[in-house]
Design a protein that fits this description.
mainly alpha
Length: about 260
């Protein structure tokens, strides 16, 4: 029975992946047709074909991979630091009311603050190098992780907690073996939300001040109305977002398999 159910689930997942692939291909075809026959001018809308040609040209020159590497480093480092910090602070806020009372105003205030307004200040403090972009990514990712971690630990099933106490579990054991696993879906959701916000942070930081990176590429292309090069940067960010979110969703399904996600 379980094997049959697994086969049915795998078949349904394959169909959904096929639908997503067809949707992406259809979108590219529409983009190509609109750009070529409706707009008809790369100055206003670059077609996928012209973007691919621009990508090949930049790849041969080596500039594209340098920009990809720089943006990738900024995102990965900022995301990892923000994830670790967000989980630790979220656990602290859920575990101690005094910690929550101190941190809640700051978390709520900074989460509601447009980071675009803070990015110039961060770049002024840390310069136009990689560190300032990491700071921007951190500031965008950390708060949803904090909020989701705290929200996940607080409502951990009281029945499970009472059952654990009934079997003689200590408070620390309950926290590690009941509260943390119960919060896992919330934490993973916060991290998945952080992927998109982190990529936005890379773009924002590099648009304001940088000497390399995909945002730097987009900014330079926009200044001279080079739509194919601009489209290359946008498409790479879009592909990265889709791939990272899909990969994280797969990881989420494996880790939280007991919830049937």
């Amino acid at each position: 029975m379980d094997k049959r159910r697994n086969r049915q689930r795998k078949g349904a997942d394959s169909k959904l992946r096929l639908v997503s692939l067809v949707s992406a291909i259809a979108g590219l075809i529409v983009w190509q047709l609109v750009g070529e026959f409706v707009v008809g001018n790369n100055l206003f809308l670059a077609t996928p074909a012209s973007a691919i040609h621009a990508m090949a040209s930049m790849s041969q020159q080596g500039t594209l991979w340098t920009d990809v590497r720089v943006s990738g480093e900024e995102f990965i480092i900022g995301f990892l630091i923000a994830s670790a910090a967000g989980i630790i602070v979220g656990i602290g806020m859920a575990s101690a009311k005094s910690v929550a009372a101190v941190a809640q105003p700051w978390v709520s205030g900074f989460y509601a603050t447009p980071i675009v307004a803070l990015a110039p200040l961060l770049i002024l403090w840390f310069g136009i190098g990689v560190v300032s972009k990491i700071a921007v990514v951190f500031s965008l990712v950390v708060f949803p992780v904090i909020i989701n971690t705290e929200a996940g630990i607080n409502p951990a099933g009281r029945e499970l907690i009472e059952a654990a106490h009934a079997f003689g579990a200590t408070q620390s054991e309950v926290f590690k073996k009941v509260s943390i696993p119960a919060a896992a879906p919330y934490v993973l959701t916060g991290l998945r939300l952080g992927i998109g916000r982190g990529l936005i942070g890379v773009v924002v930081g590099e648009l304001i001040g940088a000497n390399a990176g995909l945002g730097f590429l987009i900014n330079n292309a926009a200044q001279v109305f080079n739509m194919p090069d601009l489209s290359v940067g946008l498409v790479i960010f879009a592909i990265a977002g889709i791939a990272l979110t899909a990969g994280f969703k797969k990881l989420e399904q494996r880790i939280v398999h007991w919830q049937g996600v």
